[in-house]
Every structure is written in C-alpha cells, then in structure tokens.
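Quick one, probably user error.
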C-alpha cells in the first residue's frame, strides 16, 4: 500500500483522471493558480492562536473529540485573513514535545487538494496545538445523515468515495498510510463543495496511540485484538464509509454483511436514492465495501486499487461539486459559532454542579401547560402519596441527597397519576451525579417525549452523551437545545 511516487507524477491515477474531476488543477502544490497555492507549514506562537480564536472562546468551538479530557477544535481567524481550524490537545497528551513537533512537521509536509491540509502547529509549555485549513461547508455526516433540504445525490456520494480514496492513496504514497478513526465527521467540504479528508486523523490523538473513539462495532477486528492501526485497518474503515454512503445511515458492518450474504443488499440502499442509480452501480459498490470489510486484513484491497475501482463508477463528472451538493459557489461563510447559554456551557464543561443550580432555580415553571387530566377518582390517598413523594424528592434534590431524590422521584413517576418533564429532568441529573449516565440519558429522552420542544431535555441529553464520550451526538443535541432556546426567546 505504500508505493513511492515522484513529486509531479505521483500515483498513477493522476494522469488518468478527467480534468473535471481534478478541477483543472494539480492535486499537489495547489495547482498553477498562485491564488490557490497552499500556505507553507508555520510554527505559530500561542499568543497568535489565542488571538485567532478569541482566547479559545467556547463560542469558537466547532467540534470536540475524546473522552474525559477532550481535544477541542476551534475556528480561528489569522491576521493574514485566513480562516483556520485549531485543534487544542489535552495537556496530558503528547508529553514528549519533540515527538509532537516531528509528527506535526511530517504531516505538515503533505499538500493535496484532497486534504484539509495541516498548515502549522504550536508547542509552548504544556500547550500542543495543530492548525489546519478551515473547511466552511460542514462534514459528510451533516450532509449525509442530517440533511434538511435534499438527500445527497448519488453522483456526489460516488465522488466523495473517489476523492477519499485519492486522499488515502496520496497519503500512502507519501509514507503516511495510517489514518486514525476514519469516519463521516472526518470528511469536510471546502468552499467549492469538494470533499476533503481532515489532516487531524493523520496524527494520533496522543502518544498512547488510542485511535478509535467511535463505537466498537465499527472498529477493525484486528484493532480489537492488538490495539494497533495498520494500513489495512484504514481500508476497513473506508469500507464502513462506503456503507454510510450506500445507506445514508451509520450501519454496523456485521449487520450490513449479514444482509449482503443473505442477498438482501438492496435493503442496505438509501430509500431516497431509489431510481437514482443502476443496479450494476449499487452491486459494484456493495462488492467493493465487502472486500474492504474482509475479516482477514490481507484480503482487503489497497488504496490504489480503491481508486481504480471507483474511477469507472463516477457520474456527472462535468458537474461542479457545489452544484451536486446544492450549495452556492464560494459564498459559504464559516458556520456561526454556537452562542451557548449558561446551561449549554455547563453541559459542554460537564459541570453538573452548575446544572443543579440552574434546574433548582428554574423549578417547575416549564411544566405549565403539560396536560395532566385527572379524574375525580384520582383525588385519593394514592394521589396524595404521589404528590408527597415528589415533595420529598424536591427536598432531597435541594439538599443534594441524590440517591434519596432518585427513590422519591421514581415513586412519583411509577405512581402514574401525573406526568412531569421536570421530574424526569431532575432525576436525570441525580443519575448523572450518581455516575449512572445511561439511566440519565433514558430520563432526558423521556422528558423529550413528554415535551418535544423543551430545550432542557436536549441539554441534559447532551450532558449525558458528553459524559459517555459520544461526542458527535452530544454536539448535535447541544445544537438542537441552543436552537430551541433561541426560538423560544424570540417568541
């Protein structure tokens, strides 16, 4: 998988591609147009990056990664007028500064139109940061899983797969065949709507080499045994990406392979794509995904053969990417940062004490208007007992006696005579305080069922997901909560 390539004739596919798929420019060195030339790799000072990110303001956060100590990505604006993405590592990551700098410089030597290139780094004291080109048109996950106007077109899905294969082949040619945690959040779209592979995955998150933060159902089988990423592991992850593109959903490989073996592969296909592709194309893509997902690593194709296989499947090659993606050309501005409320900031920080104060202060005012139809027969001793259990739960909640509060609120909920989203929210926080995030997430979702447009339900889902380390879903819940709260404040 690591064939060598010269500077101008790297990777045989370069000379075979149609100009439309290369956008009439070199994949390396940014083409002949000086305006598009890639910036050289720079070592930034911490002060420069503080200024660019408004002192690492939470409002500039565009994504997070990691478990208890996340490595955060910020949007930044340099003095030269360039937008950048700045990844700030947790302080315990990369204890060896020399190793960090060596890795960053090696990745920073790569320059391709198929990558969101690494253009700099910073290493001062305990601070370790990477600086990459900023991609303004969101992630593949957003366009594929969370679309609003129209599903991603078939031709665009094929182009994403092809460009991603080109990116991996280019990296392999340059001696960087290992990519850590390849997933739909690592594919970004530039101002022209072209998909690019994030350079951040070319570096480990830290010296410990932990490479997969996603669900274990999606990790290569050999990684589960050895904890090591290989070039073949990257191809396995590419196979999971092909499944994403085929289905429009994030399907565990084992489930997909069962459908394929049972000749039910059409059940894999995104129903919104019906009639938009030929059976031959679908079959070919399924066959390629199956090869990538072989249990034995040596039976998987390499990046070069992925490029070969996908080249012949390309459709509408003369149509620019921004047209296929359904976005205006070159007018994309960086996404506005989330203007987080105090509750949103508390969720992001996983500050449960602050959440407790907010919920206590808010009380039950959001329960007003929730239908609780009580028949005359319900005004009985049982009703009184149910209300008493809520009262005792509230007292325990105020006193921060969370185990007692859980018991009392459970009695109230199990009584079944009244429904209160606030009780679910309070019990949710009690579960979080008691290190029971899974139970907490269940209560936050139940609160949403009772009150579908309640920002608090989404905030608490975000808090539970952050604590469980499910970063991408947590960010989505946080965005939804912020959007609902903004809508509510306008009314």
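Nope, works fine. Designed sequence:
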């Amino acid at each position: 998988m690591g064939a060598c390539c010269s500077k101008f004739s790297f990777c045989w596919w370069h000379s075979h591609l149609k100009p439309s798929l290369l956008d009439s420019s070199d994949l390396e060195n940014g083409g002949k147009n000086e305006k598009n030339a890639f910036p050289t790799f720079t070592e930034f000072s911490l002060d420069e990056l503080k200024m660019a990110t408004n002192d690492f303001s939470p409002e500039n956060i565009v994504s997070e990664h990691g478990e208890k100590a996340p490595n955060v990505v910020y949007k930044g604006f340099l003095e030269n007028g360039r937008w950048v993405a700045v990844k700030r590592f947790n302080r315990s990551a990369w204890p060896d500064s020399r190793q960090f700098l060596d890795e960053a410089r090696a990745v920073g030597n790569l320059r391709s139109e198929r990558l969101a290139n690494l253009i700099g780094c910073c290493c001062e004291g305990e601070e370790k940061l990477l600086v990459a080109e900023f991609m303004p048109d969101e992630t593949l996950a957003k366009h594929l899983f969370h679309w609003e106007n129209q599903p991603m077109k078939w031709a665009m899905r094929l182009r994403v797969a092809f460009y991603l294969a080109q990116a991996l082949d280019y990296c392999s040619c340059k001696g960087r065949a290992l990519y850590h945690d390849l997933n739909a959040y690592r594919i970004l779209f530039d101002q022209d709507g072209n998909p690019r592979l994030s350079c951040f995955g070319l570096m480990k998150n830290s010296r410990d080499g932990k490479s997969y933060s996603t669900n274990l159902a999606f990790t290569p089988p050999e990684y589960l045994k050895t904890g090591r990423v290989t070039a073949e592991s990257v191809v396995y992850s590419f196979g999971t990406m092909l499944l994403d593109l085929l289905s429009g959903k994030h399907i565990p490989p084992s489930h997909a392979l069962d459908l394929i073996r049972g000749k039910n592969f059409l059940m894999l296909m995104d129903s919104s794509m019906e009639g938009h592709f030929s059976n031959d194309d679908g079959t070919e893509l399924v066959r390629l995904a199956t090869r990538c997902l072989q249990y034995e690593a040596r039976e998987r194709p390499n990046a070069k053969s992925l490029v070969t296989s996908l080249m012949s499947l390309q459709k509408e090659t003369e149509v620019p990417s921004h047209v296929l993606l359904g976005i205006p050309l070159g007018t994309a501005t960086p996404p506005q940062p989330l203007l987080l409320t105090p509750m949103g900031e508390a969720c992001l920080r996983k500050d449960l004490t602050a959440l407790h104060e907010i919920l206590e202060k808010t009380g039950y005012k959001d329960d007003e208007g929730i239908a609780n139809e009580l028949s005359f027969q319900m005004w009985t001793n049982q009703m009184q007992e149910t209300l008493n259990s809520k009262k005792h739960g509230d007292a325990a909640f105020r006193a921060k006696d969370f185990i007692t509060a859980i018991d009392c609120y459970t009695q109230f909920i199990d009584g079944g005579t009244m429904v209160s989203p606030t009780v679910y929210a309070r019990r949710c926080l009690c579960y979080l305080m008691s290190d029971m995030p899974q139970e907490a997430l269940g209560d936050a979702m139940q609160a949403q069922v009772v009150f579908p447009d309640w920002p608090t339900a989404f905030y608490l889902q975000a808090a539970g997901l952050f604590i469980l380390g499910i970063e991408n879903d947590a960010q989505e819940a946080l965005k939804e909560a912020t959007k609902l709260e903004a809508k509510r404040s306008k009314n």
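The mean pLDDT is 83.
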